[in-house]
Amino acid sequence: MANEIVLQDFSVNFTPTEITINNEEDLKKQLESIARKYKGLIVTEDNLKSVKSTRTKLNALNKGLDDKRKEIKSTYNEPLSEFESKVKDYQGIINESLDPIDAGIKDLEDSQREERKKHVQEIINSMAPEYSIDPEEIEIEKSWSNKSMTEIKLTKILADGFNSLKRKKDLLETNKKLVEEHCKYVDVEPAGWVSQLSDEYNATDVIKAIDQFVEDRKMKAEAEQKRIESEEAIKKATQRKVDDVVIDDETGELLQSVPSNNYAVTIQLVGSKADIIRAIQQINSLENVTNSVVNPLSAWEG
């Protein structure tokens, strides 16, 4: 098939075109003479008009030279442009066959890579459980599905990765238990502290942070208790009780009325004489209770 696409007797004839300037030496001398004449020209108010005229003539001379350059270049490039156009047309003919071939090769290679990727996933699915690893946690690297990757080499790569991941998981579990036990010991909620564990922040670091938190909490509680005690002491020093009212000695303000602890209750006893006597005896046995019988038993008939 290779011999079928070799072009026979394909070559290009090209003769470089020579570009010459007539009377070039004389032209160069004229230009140098003009340049010397106006080199270092000082512009003043007196010669401003003539200098502007000179500038116009020099610009015209410059433009004339550039126009000639463009004219020659256009003519010089014409055969090249025509040749390039023809070559592009011929390449287009080739690409009519080449583009479908490129697309077909790409589709097939993509399909082959997907098949290799599926095989890699199958190996992962079979190996992962041996290391107590969820296969879904493994992200397939592109190099694992290369044609050059052998199954032996891939198996070793995966085994090394699984071992490393298992060690990391085991270490994390150990760190979790350490943090949870310490949280239980110092009486703090563990969830937030356990979530801080990472490759860079281990159990030792988290426990130090927990201890600092507990110390800060303790100091804050002590400070709050001292504040409350101080306020209570100030109140006791500046307030006094008169009857049922608390008075601030500094301001004379009536702060609060102290409710009385004494209550008067009227009880009507109904029953036989023996029952009423027992009821009165029970009332008399109560501490801090005094009673006054409105109708004595001697006046009671029944």
Features:
302 residues; mainly alpha; 3-stranded antiparallel beta sheet
Which class best fits the helix and strand makeup? mainly alpha
Shape: elongated
Q: How is the biggest beta sheet arranged?
A: 3 strands, antiparallel
Proportion of residues in β-strands? under 5%
> How far do the termini sit from each other?
140 Å
Count of helical regions? 6
Helix content: 55-70%
What's the alpha carbon Rg, rounded to whole Å? 54 Å
Secondary-structure element order, N to C: HHHHHEEEH
Tally of DSSP β-strands: 3
Largest beta sheet: strand ordering:
1-2-3
Instruction: Quote the average pLDDT.
Output: 84
Low-confidence stretches: none
Textual characterization of the structure:
By secondary structure, this protein is mainly α. 61% of the residues lie in helices and 4% in strands. The protein contains 6 helices and 3 strands; from the N terminus they run H-H-H-H-H-E-E-E-H. The protein has helices spanning 24-38, 48-127, 151-186, 191-194, 203-238, 273-284, and strands at 239-242, 245-248, 254-257. It has a 3-stranded antiparallel β-sheet with strand order 1-2-3. Strand 1 (239-242) and strand 2 (245-248) form a beta hairpin. Helix 2 packs across helix 3 and helix 3 (151-186) packs parallel to helix 5 (203-238). The protein is elongated and about 160 Å long. The protein starts with 23 loop residues before the first helix and ends in an 18-residue tail after the last helix.
